[in-house]
Hints:
Chain A is mostly helical. Helices cover 67% and strands 0% of the residues of chain A.
Amino acid sequence: xxxxxxxxxxxxxxxxxxxxxxxxxxxxxxxxxxxxxxxxxxxxxxxxxxxxxxxxxxxxxxxxxxxxxxxxxxxxxxxxxxxxxxxxxxxxxxxxxxxxxxxxxxxxxxxxxxxxxxxxxxxxxxxxxxxxxxxxxxxxxxxxxxxxxxxxxxxxxxxxxxxxxxxxxxxxxxxxxxxxxxxxxxxxxxxxxxxxxxxxxxxxxxxxxxxxxxxxxxxxxxxxxxxxxxxxxxxxxxxxxxxxxxxxxxxxxxxxxxxxxxxxxxxxxxxxxxxxxxxxxxxxxxxxxxxxxxxxxxxxxxxxxxxxxxxxx
Amino acid sequence: xxxxxxxxxxxxxxxxxxxxxxxxxxxxxxxxxxxxxxxxxxxxxxxxxxxxxxxxxxxxxxxxxxxxxxxxxxxxxxxxxxxxxxxxxxxxxxxxxxxxxxxxxxxxxxxxxxxxxxxxxxxxxxxxxxxxxxxxxxxxxxxxxxxxxxxxxxxxxxxxxxxxxxxxxxxxxxxxxxxxxxxxxxxxxxxxxxxxxxxxxxxxxxxxxxxxxxxxxxxxxxxxxxxxxxxxxxxxxxxxxxxxxxxxxxxxxxxxxxxxxxxxxxxxxxxxxxxxxxxxxxxxxxxxxxxxxxxxxxxxxxxxxxx
Lengths: 313, 307
């Protein structure tokens, strides 16, 4: 991703924010390219455009709506043919069964704890590394950055066997350490993103603070972090979502049911033999609600972060 | 980008006390990341290369077997099936998701109300986790009571077995992949479309170009960097497809949805053949890296840049 040269005045809204505004269309889209001029024709074109968009949106969203509707049906209604669209009798039976028979609240709590820790760790370690790579001068700086960049494309699958061996050597299997500790040890994508932003912040600001007796940590905390809050929010939100949805590492490292995050808990429910679809849909809904809530509240950060990370896991 | 700048040359000069302190702080702040590289990325990768030359079941110590694992991989039909499936998934899902993403982005790139709302809605599937989407689509695909067969029955098609049939299993997985990634492509293409200068369209209109020709000769060339970026990310992501198949088909029926990551996972954690799994990992990473490098090389030929 290229960064635009920015002036000192626009520093308060660094790249992530700039990108979100364009992406979010706070600024109206510049072009209106495909429509023809005559007024009657235009009304027709606009109407069909909206109709088409509404249909496509419904198709895309319908599976999620279907999940919600199924979760409120009785199991006998779920297993009826032809299927009913709206539940005849709305019931929360599936939810109460799931919560009673499985430690599902525990799964959700585990995910909340793990994802929060992962988010905090990622933000701290990436901010520290990115700041050092931009602001502090030391030998080997460029080389370290190159190595970090190189790891950007190494998928977890390529390293999971040795990491598993490593973790079992030090007795971290069936704990949350293999999920949380790496987050505190930097992350190529986060470092890359924050470094790009930090580079736009004028050095003089930090140097002035240093002359006033501020150490590097205070320069980072009082100048660099406040000037890039939207990027931190975007990185934080996306880290949280990706961690919440991450299945492969907890699948490998955590076996104890009481320690499972919700992604693995769901997969575990699914593996419990005969599928009771109203239960599975209720469980899926429960697992998705926190993320949907987050998305509703901060959609511009979610979109910006996820797009920049290329859905990086 | 990495050319020596003045600042980095200054490092080599005789150091003052302040410079030494700055350097120390620098190392201190990157030290967590260095540990991460050592224990969670670069280190494990190097170890994986070593393990790939051994026979090891996690218990005891690895026995050196030289190239045996690689030779065996080469003759392992399941390994080739896994690659074939991964390429099948990538080859269909990436172009499909990009074409649909571009189409919807063109619709959304209008100066009309509510366009941002649509964009927000298209992105929702991306926030639904892979496991939950796998489950909800398994339910859609259910051969007996699923919604899809019901809808197809209306137009006189089906019933299909979707996930449990050898022909339909991979297309079903692809549908889920496209569904999840379309929002990403829409956002990427919208950003690209909004960067195309309007003056070009005006100039073309004066020259009498119709919408189709404008699209063909202005939009597509100017969008080619975006298309390239989307394709690259899409391919890298699709090569790693695993969770969908784990949740929906467990690689079946008859290995028709066994992807390369699934193969590695199975060899490593179901059969505890760590050496063999590592050999597959190394092969995978080499192919992924070579593919990425090739694409970046081809970039100049395929992509039109303004300057």
